[in-house]
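Human: Not sure, check this?
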Amino acid sequence: MTKRYLWTLDRTGQHSRNGLATEIELLDILNKEALPGVMPADWLLATMQIDMEGSGLSIHESNQNPQDMWKLELKLAA
């Protein structure tokens, strides 16, 4: 069974983006976003998957300049 994630990406100066995606689809989205100041997309996703144990929700926020701030939320879809 393929895992799917509900995701939301908020970036300063841009409209929020969200959707439902598999791990592969989400990696493609994150790579295209080229989030400033972040590890490679596969590392970010792996770290967030570890963090979601228990609650099923993981949030990662950047600590960049105010104009480059972003927040990614992942929730494992049932």
Summary: The radius of gyration is 12 Å. DSSP finds two helices and four strands in the chain. The CA atoms of residues 5 and 61 lie 18 Å apart.
